[in-house]
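Consider the tokenized backbone below.
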């Protein structure tokens, strides 16, 4: 009996490194990225890498060690990534603590284009300042590396619901009242969509009236009251199935 002593071929994914904007040439990585590439990932000098930026552009490149701890990236030919045919924006009230971080990470994995943290009448959490937004931007960028999506989910500043509605043309809002099952809304879905998720205390009558003025559609996920992050992620996952078909 013949035995095949050949070892199986292991296909290794090329490591991805994110920079905000791709430009040809050699560029220094900031201290944290250099540390991650050299000391955490242990990439050798000259290692092949894939580079991508916020807008979804990508390039093949190389990591070059620089000094004792620094690193440079050599950017090759830059390829523009075509925009997805369907784009989903999630505008949501903000859950407490680490639940918000987890929500941002999962929405990024699901291909959501932008996350808008909403200030609603019954919101409990109102993150102010740049610290929280910058943290979410880092989480979105790290998630993009791992899930290999094109580009990075955009994180908007905390936005009052009335202000968010001004720029909402086509949208749904999650509701537990008289609403259409979300499954009924999926056929024919195309272009772009804004999906609004309220706080666990629900929308006020005045907010629902504002939705009706904008001709937004009330959609339902379940007959139960969901946590904010559960509702946002579940809705995004359902809508993302249409992105595969498109």
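A designed sequence for it:
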């Amino acid at each position: 009996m013949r035995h095949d002593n050949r070892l199986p071929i292991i296909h290794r994914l090329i490591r991805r490194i994110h920079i905000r904007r791709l430009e040809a040439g050699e560029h220094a990585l900031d201290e944290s990225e250099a540390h991650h590439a050299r000391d955490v990932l242990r990439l050798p000098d000259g290692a092949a890498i894939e580079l991508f930026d916020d807008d979804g552009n990508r390039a093949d490149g190389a990591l070059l060690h620089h000094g004792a701890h620094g690193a440079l990236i050599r950017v090759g030919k830059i390829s523009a990534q075509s925009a997805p045919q369907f784009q989903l924006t999630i505008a949501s009230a903000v859950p407490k603590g680490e639940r918000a971080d987890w929500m941002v990470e999962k929405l990024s994995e699901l291909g959501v284009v932008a996350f808008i943290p909403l200030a609603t009448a019954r919101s409990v959490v109102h993150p102010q300042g740049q610290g929280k937004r910058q943290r979410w931007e880092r989480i979105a960028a790290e998630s993009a590396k791992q899930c290999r999506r094109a580009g990075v989910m955009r994180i908007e500043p905390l936005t009052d619901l009335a202000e968010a509605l001004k720029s909402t043309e086509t949208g749904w809002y999650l509701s537990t009242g008289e609403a259409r099952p979300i499954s009924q809304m999926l056929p024919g879905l195309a272009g772009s969509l804004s999906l609004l998720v309220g706080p666990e205390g629900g929308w006020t009558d005045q907010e629902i009236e504002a939705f009706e003025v904008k001709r937004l559609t009330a959609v339902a996920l379940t007959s139960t009251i969901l946590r904010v992050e559960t509702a946002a992620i579940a809705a995004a996952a359902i809508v993302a199935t249409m992105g595969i078909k498109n």
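The chain has seven helices and 13 strands.
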